[in-house]
Amino acid sequence: MLLTVNELSVSFGGVHALDLSHFELNDKELRVIIGPNGAGKSTFLDILCGKTKPDSGQVLYNDIPVLGKTEVEIANLGIGRKFQKPSVFPSLTVFDNMLLALKMKKSIFASLFFKPTEEIDVRIRQVAVKVGLDKELKKIAGELSHGQKQWLEIAIVVLQDPKLMLIDEPAAGMSDEETEKTGELLLELSKHHGIIVIEHDMKFVEQIAKDLVTVLVRGKLLVEGSFSQVRNDQRVIDSYLGRANVQLENF
Ligand SMILES: Nc1ncnc2c1ncn2[C@@H]1O[C@H](COP(=O)(O)OP(=O)(O)OP(=O)(O)O)[C@@H](O)[C@H]1O
Ligand SMILES: [Mg+2]
Known about the structure:
Layout: E1 3-12, E2 15-25, E3 30-34, H1 41-48, E4 56-61, E5 64-65, H2 71-77, E6 79-82, H3 94-104, H4 106-112, H5 117-131, H6 146-159, E7 164-168, H7 176-189, E8 194-198, H8 202-208, E9 213-217, E10 220-225, H9 227-231, H10 234-241
Parallel strand pairs: 3-8, 3-9, 6-7, 7-8
Antiparallel strand pairs: 1-2, 1-4, 4-5, 9-10
Helix pairs in contact: 3-6, 5-6, 7-8
The chain binds adenosine-5'-triphosphate (ATP) and magnesium ion (MG).
InterPro entries: AAA+_ATPase (IPR003593), ABC_AA/LPS_Transport (IPR051120), ABC_transporter-like_ATP-bd (IPR003439), ABC_transptr_urea_ATP-bd_UrtD (IPR017781), P-loop_NTPase (IPR027417)
Keywords: ATP-binding, Nucleotide-binding, Transport
GO molecular function: ATP binding; ATP hydrolysis activity
């Protein structure tokens, strides 16, 4: 098991943001987490990457306890996070954003000076091809389209080569075409990485949900199952899919 979570709980000002009894993720599994606004989805990822300290619970990553470790320690263990809000440097080129991401990977930082520039160059180009940004490497990141900025964010996570990637709402604000490309990218990445994706766009969820979908509601696990199981579950329809904020267009 890549990730095992037990009795994970956190409150903010007395309100239970997350109260997750159990969660497991296999190596190279692609898990989609859905649920209404404020369900605790981002909070869960915040805990996994060390940004938020839970009140109680256990998180094992490859049998290593993660809680209590710093964000840097967790990143170095191999857990990479793409946040809901953009975090690229808009005034740097795509290439330099990616170079910076490589330099920030602490374990290779020391060896970076000994590596031929060509090797770094090749790695950046490989990842750029993977995310569809190979023709944009010299472009200023701030001038990329919204979709391309999201792909750069994903590229920055991929460059750290994590075993577990945490990706929060990658398709938000994307065109249909960009959304589909993002889905293909995540499916491709899941051949090599365990991935947890949070998403509201159900058409996109259907595209990428080759494994299990987890539904969170008010911090608790409501149901877990295949896409069609979850899609047809009356409790999920009542508490989430029936709501106006869910993108069910063309569904
Ligand atoms: N740092 C924080 N301080 C106080 N309250 C917080 C904090 N982070 C999250 N919350 C609260 O915890 C609850 C869960 O929020 P969270 O952001 O995890 O929801 P979400 O499922 O990601 O929602 P969305 O779909 O809108 O992104 C919300 O009530 C939110 O207001
Ligand atoms: Mg969120």
